[in-house]
Amino acid sequence: MKITLLGTGSPLPDPNRAGPSTLVQAGDQNIVVDCGRGAVMRLLAAGVLPGMVGTALITHLHSDHITDLNDLVTTRWIMMPVNVPLRVVGPVGTKAIVDAMLQMLGPDQSYRLGHHDDLRAAGPLTVDVTEVGPGETLQIGTVTVTTHATDHRPVEPSLGYRIAADGHVAALAGDTIPCAGLDDLCRDADVYVQTVIREDLVAQLAALLPNSQRLLDILDYHSTVAQAGQTASRNRVKTLVLTHYVPAMQPGAEEDWRRVAAEHFTGTIVLGPDLTSVEV
Ligand SMILES: [Zn+2]
Ligand SMILES: [Zn+2]
User: Fold this and answer.
1) For the segment 166-175, what is each residue's pLDDT rounded down to a tens digit?
2) Per-residue pLDDT averaged across 120-130, rounded?
3) For 21-36, how does the pLDDT look when each residue is reduced to its tens digit (9 = 90+)?
4) Ligand index nearest the alpha carbon of residue 244
5) Which CATH class is domain 2-279?
6) What's the alpha-carbon Rg for the chain, to the nearest Å?
7) Mean pLDDT, residues 65-76
8) Burial of 201 by CB count in 10 Å (0-12 exposed, 13-18 middle, 19+ buried)?
9) Who's near 99: CB < 8 A, 6+ residues apart?
């Protein structure tokens, strides 16, 4: 099982970090968890063509986690010789988002269908959406995925995905504060991927801004780096992977971020630029 951070950024644009998205290569599957800004570019850099991704698991419907889902859907459709719909699994509300997205892509689809006879023969652009709640189990090829409630309120619902294959487990949490569902998600996992913020750096940044309340508001619904370390430790995780760095982790700051997590967790801590990966 290989986990690759396709995008380690956040809603705040950064020239070097794509938006939140993580590739899980497990069993016979390539699965992306969330699909933020630039995810498809990073997918290619990881050696995976869009058509090789069968499933996208969506943790929640915040824009930064889904901005490039339309790009993944479109590039799969126009690049694949056969028309195999992308399976999209997400919380309640995902179907409405995908329906609206397909409506947005309507003109593009009609241009391409009008221009390419073989694409018309392959069939229209479709997406196979499954809305899930917590406590569900999905079989995706040889991979088993269970869904777990996370707490990103007022964003509701939000989910984490526990992915098991070949005797290994990866726990993929989206944006969430520590909670019982998160503990269930990552208990005894080989790898636990957590989106994080640094509350000390956010506070420093906010002090420099004229209208800082909007930035300070984010502190109450994300795990801090320290909390991610505590969650990993409490649940006997082997490897903690940090992503979605807010503020963006500056070059050379990796060891400072690692130190904050290491105060709470003695296992392996993985962080870094886009395309950082871990294999178990
Ligand atoms: Zn969010
Ligand atoms: Zn986010």
Assistant:
1) 999 999 999 9
2) 95
3) 999 999 999 999 999 9
4) 2
5) alpha beta
6) 19
7) 97
8) buried
9) none
Residue 201 has pLDDT above 90, yes or no: yes
DSSP state of 19: P
Measure the CA–CA gap between 178 and 182, rounded to whole angstroms: 6
- Please report, for residues 20, 32, 43, 132, 277, the alpha-carbon distance to residue 4 in angstroms, rounded to integers and kept in the order given: 11, 9, 9, 24, 4
Exposure string for 24-37, b = 16+ CB within 10 A, e = fewer: bbbbebbbbbbbbb
Among candidates 224, 246, 200, 217, which has minimal Cα distance to 155? 217
184 is catalytic: no
Give the count of beta carbons closer than 10 Å to the beta carbon of residue 236.
11
Closest alpha carbon to 23 in 3, 42, 41? 3
How far is Cα 44 from Cα 34, in angstroms, rounded to an integer?
16
Q: Which long-range contacts (CB under 8 A, 24 or more apart) does 108-113 make?
A: 108/74, 112/78
Pairing outcome for strands 137-140 and 268-270 = unpaired
Domain residue extents for the chain: 2-279
% the chain with pLDDT above 70: 100
Which pTM was predicted? 0.97
What gap in Å lies between CA 232 and CA 241, rounded to an integer? 10
| 14, 28, 34, 64: the active-site residue | 64
What is the phi/psi pair of residue 37, to 5°? -50, 120
Q: Ligand 2 center to residue 172 CA distance, Å?
A: 13
Report residues near ion ligand 1: CB below 5 Å: 62, 175
